[in-house]
Structures are given as structure tokens and as C-alpha cells.
Amino acid sequence: xIFGAFIAGSSPEGSAAIAYPIFTLILKISPAVxxxxxxxxxxxGMTSASLLILGLKVKVDWKYIKYVTIGGVFGLxxxxxxxxxxxxxxxAKLFFVSLWLSFGIILWNENRKPSRQVFDEIRxxxxxxxxxxxxxxxxxxxxxxxxxTGINIFTFCLMTVYYGINEKVAVPSSIxxxxxxxxxxxxxxxxxxxxxxxxxxxxxxxxxxxxIIFAPLGSFVMSKLPRKAIATFLYLxxxxxxxxxxxVIKPNxxxxxxxxxxxxxxxxxFFFLSKRRKADI
Length: 281
Fold this sequence. Notes:
Elements: H1 2-10, H2 16-26, H3 31-55, H4 62-83, H5 89-111, H6 127-147, H7 151-162, H8 167-192, H9 198-224, H10 227-249, H11 253-275
Helix pairs in contact: 1-2, 1-9, 2-3, 2-10, 3-8, 3-9, 4-6, 4-8, 5-7, 5-10, 5-11, 6-7, 7-8, 7-11
């Protein structure tokens, strides 16, 4: 969680991106416990990181935060009640790490261009942009309901590839979004559903002292790095996450096929968004 908390505070990946696969696939902890723990621990770590971001007055895009968070509330609730019971954790994990890797490939390709323009906010904001953010927030909320994280990286893809938003703005914005989402998820499982397990609670207490330090430390380091260094750090995380998932899951033929199709489909999707990005229209 020291590493996971640092990742959560310095990138659009929540600490659950590290904890969930290790807990479920290596330590054989049940997916439900891993998810609830993710919500609980991020409610501490990411809140600490967000407070540091606000205290340092790091540039964020409040329209991005507002509309994605609203959509995320609907997606999280819907996913918790109607999607989570239907999902096989290994299949879901393969799908999403493959999708994130495809995004990393396209973002890397975009940043290779010397002429790539980036912006600190969505220019000429319209109702269509509000709908885009809301819709991606709904899908991201559903993803978060499965893993305890996801809305941050999913909407970060839209912001950087389609809207051309500077990674130094998109990362802290996505951290604040995931903070709000994870507090809701924690409340939902603890107070509404009442399915917060003793095991998740005990692990949460053990990890609080680490995440409350290393998540804001990650945000502080991120605020000092140049944009391309942040992007490079993200490519590395996405690649290691994918390789780690393949190594742990050891997918069979059909799972490998799903991963390959998702990777190819994601590359096509994000390449299309990059070519039609609003900044160029």
C-alpha cells in the first residue's frame, strides 16, 4: 500500500489498481473484500492527496470534476446493484488492463509529436461537452463499482486524448474525482448495504498510517514534475499493470483472445478520438 498510495496520489490510477489484483489473484482475498478495502483505504489516502492539491492550489478543471462526479454517482450505484453480481474478476481485470494499455499506447504516440498542443481546460465548453463528461462518468462509476477504482483513469483518457488537456491538470482533477467517488462507495457498502467485512476493516486500520503519508507525497511529487515526465510515469504504470495481470492470471486461449481484441479495439477507439479531438475542431 506504500507503493499503491504513492501511485494514487501521483497518477490517475487509484491505489486499488495495485491492491485489487494483488489481493484477489496472489493473496486469494475475495473480490468483495478487496473492493470494499479499496473504497475504505482510498477514502483516507486520496482525501489526503486532494487536500494537498487544494492547499497547494494545483491547477484543476472544475467542469471536468463536476460533470464526471455527477455521472459517477449514478454509475457507482447502478454498478453496485446490477453489474457487480454478474462479473468474473479475472475477465473484468483482463478487459480493463488491456483497455488502459491501449490508451497508454495512443497517449505515448500523441506525445511523440513535437507539435502536440495541450490546454489547461476544456475550451468553448458546451452542453455536448457536459454530456460527454457525464456519460463517461457513468461508465467510470460502473467500473469503480467493480474494482473500487476506475472512473479516474477512464475519464482521464477522454480528457487527454479527445480534449487535449495537459496531464498536469488532468491528473490532479482525476484524483479529486476518485476521492469523491470512493467516499460514496465506502458509505454505500458500510452504511447502506451493510456488507463491509471485518477482514476489510482490519486491513484498513493497518494501512491508514501509510497511505495518509504516501498519497499526498505522490501528489506533491507530481506537482513538481514536468508534463512529459508525468506521462512517461503513466505509460510505465499501465505497461507494468498489464504485464502483471497476464503473469498472475495466466489467461487461457479465450481470455487471451479477449485481451487481444480489447487491446486492438481500444487502440482504434482512442486513435479515432485523438484524430477528432475537440482542440483540433
